[in-house]
């Protein structure tokens, strides 16, 4: 379970890092600042998630909100670039792909939090693991979201 958390944090952090890297490729100091902040925040979250209180169904909503907050930090550099250089600065960010990815992620998180469909149909959708189909749908949505994002990054290069 702890490795699951680590994987999620690494996925989200990598998205934030690449957004800052591409978005501020002409301003290395700003990119380095955002990358450092993302790495620092990610390390803090890893240590928070290693605590025993972060486990279990009772902490699922809290964990999801912490991850959502980390995901939201991806948009801070975008807003910063817009304030500094206007709309033309956004062409360096994979913001369209990121918006699509986050939409897919949110759908997955909703399945995870509501534990649907296993909450309505117990033992019917447990395919690979016994933790339920909502969790499996969440993981599938993360993979789909990252593929969408990677395709967006390829369009920038």
TrEMBL record:
<keyword id="KW-1133">Transmembrane helix</keyword>
<feature type="binding site">
    <location>
        <position position="139"/>
    </location>
    <ligand>
        <name>Zn(2+)</name>
    </ligand>
</feature>
<dbReference type="InterPro" id="IPR004254">
    <property type="entry name" value="AdipoR/HlyIII-related"/>
</dbReference>
<protein>
    <recommendedName>
        <fullName>Hly-III related protein</fullName>
    </recommendedName>
</protein>
<feature type="transmembrane region" description="Helical">
    <location>
        <begin position="6"/>
        <end position="24"/>
    </location>
</feature>
<dbReference type="GO" id="GO:0038023">
    <property type="term" value="F:signaling receptor activity"/>
</dbReference>
<keyword id="KW-0472">Membrane</keyword>
<dbReference type="GO" id="GO:0046872">
    <property type="term" value="F:metal ion binding"/>
</dbReference>
<dbReference type="Pfam" id="PF03006">
    <property type="entry name" value="HlyIII"/>
</dbReference>
<dbReference type="GO" id="GO:0016020">
    <property type="term" value="C:membrane"/>
</dbReference>
<feature type="transmembrane region" description="Helical">
    <location>
        <begin position="31"/>
        <end position="50"/>
    </location>
</feature>
<dbReference type="GO" id="GO:0006882">
    <property type="term" value="P:intracellular zinc ion homeostasis"/>
</dbReference>
<feature type="binding site">
    <location>
        <position position="135"/>
    </location>
    <ligand>
        <name>Zn(2+)</name>
    </ligand>
</feature>
<keyword id="KW-0812">Transmembrane</keyword>
<keyword id="KW-0479">Metal-binding</keyword>
<keyword id="KW-0862">Zinc</keyword>
